[in-house]
Structure formats: C-alpha cells, structure tokens
# Entry
Amino acid sequence: MNFNLKDFAKIAKIIDSTKENKLFYKTVKSIYMTNYIWIWR
# Structure
C-alpha cells in the first residue's frame, strides 16, 4: 500500500472545512492514524 503525505494533507483540509463536527474530525483522524501506524509496522 502506498502512503502519500499529499493525500493526508488533502484529507486534513477537507476535515478542517467540516470542523464543526468535532466527533467526526476525531474519528476520522484516529482511524487515519491507526491505518498509518499499521502500514508502517
């Protein structure tokens, strides 16, 4: 699996634009970071 920091930046921007929903922000961020750690394990 190819991990791209540019993709992360895009996702972060999208999340920032919907930051009203902080639960969504936290959930997506934690899922993304878990996947990031799993990929590099």
